[in-house]
Amino acid sequence: MLWMRDMLIIANVTLLLAIQVFLLVRSLNKLNKDLESFFEAVHSQDSSLVFSHRKSHSAFSNLYQQLDNINKTIQQIKIENQNQNQYFKALVEHIGIGIIGFTDDGKVTLFNSAASELLKKANLFRITDLDTVKPGLSSLLRQLKPSEPRLVSLYQRSELMQLSVKATWIRILDQKITLVSLQNIRNELDEKELESWQKLIRVLTHELMNSVGPMSSTIATLGEFLVNTGGSTKKADELTDDIVADIATGLHILEERSHGMVDFVTRFRNLTLLPQPVFTTFSIGELFGSIQRLLAEKLQQSNVKLEVKVASEAVRLTADRGMVEQILLNLVGNAIYALEGMAKGSILLIAQLDDHNRLTVTVADNGVGIPPELHDKVFIPFFSTRKDGSGIGLSLSRQLMRLHGGTITLSSTPGEGTVVTLRFSEGEIEG
Question: Which of 42, 261, 295, 417 could make an SS bond with 366 (beta carbons 3.0 to 4.6 A apart)?
Fold first, then answer.
């Protein structure tokens, strides 16, 4: 009988284990299905799935609680992202600058109302559709680089617009997006053009009156020497030696003033008729060495020290070497003049590449500096702070830099010195 009891016990235990295994497997299968449903919901961005009804009677109540918490967090993140997207969409639509975003394959992802108004297009789906606004506009926007703003002239309904076009690149996941901003700056350009013409006319008037005034006065004086009080012309025997000498002096004055006017017109003509640059690639270090040799005597006479710093001897620039040399000669020459009479005058000539691989050349001196009210005038043609200056050096330098797609800026503090910075569109380091 004992063996029957043992068999019954074993059978009961086996049955209980089987039931427990069955319940465990069923529970695990249910959990697996719930986890699978949860991950599918996360993958499909569905945050409506909840497990609150299973917490009270489940051995995995803590796990279900954590899944619900994760679900709530995902739901909150979605709400925040949606709110943020709505905010940025409203911001992009509110600003007065046109913005276009497009992918590498030309699909437009952003086209705000300001851009729609500027380009007179209600919708834009492909960037190539812009060619109906202006032929070649899509290619121009595709080729834009962040460091290369462009000015685009555009006629819309017989109205000329001058669009300042800039680009930047962003990457969203594995896709590159080009963002282009468009701003009509015609009014600003017109105001600047008018202001430039007014300044130029004032300078031209000043220069011409400096010559015309003395010439007019001299001609009137010569007339008095040759005409009697009654208005009749004097005869040859009435001209004394003193009168002849005065007439010769007057004619010499007229000759000098006429040469001065011819020289002024010649300088003005040279300033407006610049040749196109001939681009070659050359070493900046070698160019700086040439500047030192050309100005060595002048530097020694003025007791000025010229120090040269180049980030690397391998730094090279693609530009018109003669034009760049002329710019540097003008700038260093101006610095030498600013240091006249100083006991420890020094000039620093620096060349380096910035983070965008663009060459920056700086000419700095510790001279007398330029007053703030003259900072916006030094680039005006024929304006000069020097008594013997022609007033074309900085203006010519700015025009030459524009021919190279670069810029020239000046900062100066009276009593501390002046810094002039040249920024070229690109540079390179060999090797």
Answer: 417
Q: Which residue's structure tokens are 């300044």?
A: 199
Q: Are residues 103 and 86 in the same domain?
A: no
d(CA 295, CA 334): 12
Q: What is the pLDDT of residues 332-383, one digit of tens each?
A: 888 888 888 787 889 999 998 877 778 889 999 988 888 877 776 777 666 6
CA-angle at 423, arms to 422 and 425, nearest 5°: 145
Q: 279-302: per-residue pLDDT in tens?
A: 888 989 888 988 888 888 888 888
pLDDT band, residue 431 (cuts 50/70/90): very low
For the full predicted model, state whether its pTM sits above 0.70.
no
Angle, to 10 degrees, between the axis of helix 241-272 and the axis of helix 393-403?
20
State which of 56, 90, 124 marks the end of a domain.
90
Taking residue 245's Cβ as centre, other Cβ atoms within 10 Å add up to 10
Find the angle CA(153)-CA(158)-CA(163) to the nearest 5 degrees: 25
Report the number of distinct structural domains present in the chain.
4
pLDDT at position 264? 64
Q: CATH code at 147?
A: 3.30.450.20
CATH number reported for the structural domain that contains residue 331 in this entry:
3.30.565.10
For residue 54, give its domain range: 2-90
Round to whole Å and give the CA distance between 429 and 354.
12
Do residues 345 and 365 make contact, with C-beta atoms less than 8 angstroms apart? Answer: yes
Indicate if 235 and 361 belong to the same structural domain: no
**Percentage helix, strand, coil for the chain under 3-state DSSP, each rounded to 5:** 50, 20, 25
Question: Domain boundary residue among 31, 62, 90?
Answer: 90
Cβ-based neighbour number of residue 372 at 10 Å: 10
- Block residue for tokens 């050309």: 294
Pairwise pLDDT comparison (260 vs 74), residue with the higher score: 74
Beta carbons of 422 and 327 less than 8 angstroms apart? yes
- Comparing C-alpha atoms, which of 362, 333, 327, 337 is closest to residue 348? 362
Same domain, 303 and 193: no
